[in-house]
# Entry
Amino acid sequence: MPIDWIFGLIGGLLIGLAGAVYLLGNGRIMGASGIIGGLVDGTARGAWAERGAFLAALVAVPAVLQFGIPVVTGAASAPVLLITAGLCVGIGTRIANGCTSGHGVCGISRFSLRGIVATLIYIGAGVVTVVVLRLMMGGM
Amino acid sequence: MRIIFALVAGGLFGAGLHISGMTDTTKVQGFLDFFGAWDPTLAFVMGGAIIPMALAWRMVPGRTPLVGGEFAPAPDPLLDRRLITGSVLFGIGWGLIGLCPGPAIASLSYGGWTGALFFIAMLAGMWATPLLSPYLDRSDQAA
# Structure
């Protein structure tokens, strides 16, 4: 759809606003992998309440919005692919200490070299993966 | 107050992901499909998100967070092996399914077993990472 980019831009502005609130309010970087990863591996220490609140709202708002703006999801894949991808994303973002929100949105906007390099690398790896996937599926 | 800011930020993040279509894995994979039917939406989302965030960073110097305390310290500008290895691994997983951590969490709200299975595997990976770290650090020293 040609209007997709308008929704993309509006949604992007909201995501940036979210990061601004988290930074200026709580003094923290809004990185999804860091916020949830710290809870999973126990490095969050005293900050579990604010992290829990962030995650609860992150799930609750789309849950309500889907009744106004219908969801399109494409995630229909083989279980083995879903598990492999989930493990890669979980381990990769924790080793690199950031994902699309932390390195991408928060890192690039402060001109962080680490954020910019990480973003170029994960987009590059993603592009190669999609190409390989298409070749294997036989559709070119 | 910390909780309130976290709720507002999480809610805005969720709304932004939903409205932008980033919870739609075909859009993300479409963006990564440089050599196919390229979908530029993700670039607009990134660009849109960077604008308010860049303004926020400009407000940081000389201030303290609204709840008090200090801003998280700037990271060591070091480009180490962990950053590169981790980002490659993340990019592979991202390309395979089209989900990164933020949308993976937000997608739980839509139900369905595919998103849940990915999410559980992601959590398992995050939990296991500290166990893998000794091996990573060892290869760092060997390099």
Remarks:
- Chain B touches chain A through 115 residues (CB under 8 Å).
- Residues 2-142 of chain B form one domain.
